[in-house]
Design a protein that fits this description.
- The chain is of the alpha+beta class.
- It has a single domain (8-131), classed as Roll (Pnp Oxidase, Chain A), CATH 2.30.110.
- The chain has helices spanning 8-14, 16-28, 66-73, 106-116; strands spanning 31-37, 43-53, 56-61, 76-80, 93-102, 123-138, 142-148, 155-159.
- The radius of gyration is 16 Å and the shape is globular.
Length: 160
């Protein structure tokens, strides 16, 4: 993992166009797919609602859910935006990776709760981004992959 993870605000400041696209993809649907690591190191995928607010990408979870327990043990995660119905994937496929840090501060949780209104009680995780990837098709001809990592500009790869 990179040594300098970023929050959402730092990503959006560094790459505003890509950040808008990624935020729109996460905003298009309510549920997305979160990957965490089980005790034995194998992957676990589960559905999750995502919120981007206050310059942060937040992950909220039910109390003692397996995904919350996974993140408490090992904060590494990957998150894929819901591709939507069919094969269109308007805006492309979007994935975010990083670390999820649990928030225990009652004031921060209360502020989040006022905006999002989650069922009480809940786990709240603030994310540190280590990679953002967007994959899409351009001109029905090229597969385009955009990769952002903290401290570096977006790298764009095109394949036919």
């Amino acid at each position: 993992m990179p040594e300098n993870p970023s929050n959402w605000a730092a990503f959006a400041a560094a790459e505003p166009e890509l950040a808008r696209t990624v935020e729109a993809r996460f905003g298009a649907f309510t549920h997305h797919v979160l990957a965490t690591l089980r005790k034995d190191g194998s992957p676990r995928t589960t559905g999750l609602e995502v919120r981007i607010t206050g310059g942060e990408l937040w992950l909220g979870m039910m109390p003692d859910s397996l995904k919350a327990l996974d993140l408490r043990r090992d904060p590494r995660f990957a998150l894929q935006a819901n591709p939507g119905p069919g094969t269109e994937m308007g805006g492309g496929d979007v994935r975010v990776s990083g670390r999820a840090l649990e928030v225990d501060d009652p004031a921060v949780k209360a502020a989040y709760g006022e905006e999002v209104e989650p069922p009480e009680p809940f786990h709240l995780f603030r994310t540190e981004l280590t990679e953002v990837v967007r994959t899409y098709v351009e001109d029905d001809k090229y597969l385009v992959v955009q990769v952002w990592k903290p401290g570096a500009p977006v790298r764009t790869l095109k394949r036919t």
